[in-house]
Amino acid sequence: MQLSVIIVSYNSLRLLENCLFSIQKAMQTIDGDIIIVDNNSKDGIKDHLPSKFPRVKFIFNNENLGFAKACNQGSKISSGDYILFLNPDTVLSETCLSDCISFFKTHADAGAVGVRMLDEKGKFLKESKRGLPSPAASFYKLFGFTAIFPGSKTIAKYYQGHLPENENNPVDVLSGAFMLIKRALFEKVNGFDESFFMYGEDIDLSLRISQLGYKNYYLGKVSITHLKGGSTTYNKKYIKDFYGAMNLFVKKHYNERSTLYRLFLHTGIGIRKMLAILALPFR
Known about the structure:
Layout: E1 3-9, H1 13-26, E2 32-38, H2 45-52, E3 57-60, H3 67-75, E4 82-86, E5 90-92, H4 96-106, E6 110-118, E7 129-130, H5 135-142, H6 145-148, E8 169-171, E9 173-174, E10 178-182, H7 183-188, H8 201-211, E11 215-226, H9 236-253, H10 259-279
Parallel strand pairs: 1-2, 1-4, 2-3, 6-11
Antiparallel strand pairs: 4-10, 5-11, 6-10, 7-9, 8-11
């Protein structure tokens, strides 16, 4: 089998339904399977979707296992040579999957690929391509310099701003909203790190892929729609989970760096978290 698509769902019934319709169109010429791992949703998914999509495999968990663990759970029953981890709040173009697989076949150094993501208004989502978090990148983003100099290789490193939106290039970090990876490599890196409940697992996996000598490619010529936040409620819990994941990443990958280096990162994360909480009433 060529491709397995794995989606983790949590109270995203309508978005997931639209996503599945788009996947079916995109897979018309591809031998593959689709696996939904549901983290104990309360939106009626079990009664509505299995009958509507009889060829889709469903796993219904009795609790919310988090994104990383659910992705690994789905991968264990998949059989594609490539595995696509996909958010339910996405809509694929008809040639998206075949274009990505073709890219793999002509780039032996590719470990994983991501794509150009657009919101519902067609605006480019900068998190489609990212750099690794560092004190400098965090500082520039935190204090707004990234927005002032969006094309700078140094100042806009967080979003790899120097790389053209519409070109294919290796990047440090791919988004977990659309991450296509070779099965053999995914198994070699032992999948997602389940210490990350939600958020940060894509940064961690991207880094571990590059540490094995493979490249993460951003495909600027392949686009999807990502209804950003459509399956996520932006509240205090989200903020706590997100910035908690960032601190976990620092502890895991920067533990051998100097105390000052790590302190700067943790401080930046803490400030950003505080600002996010203060801004909640104004969203």
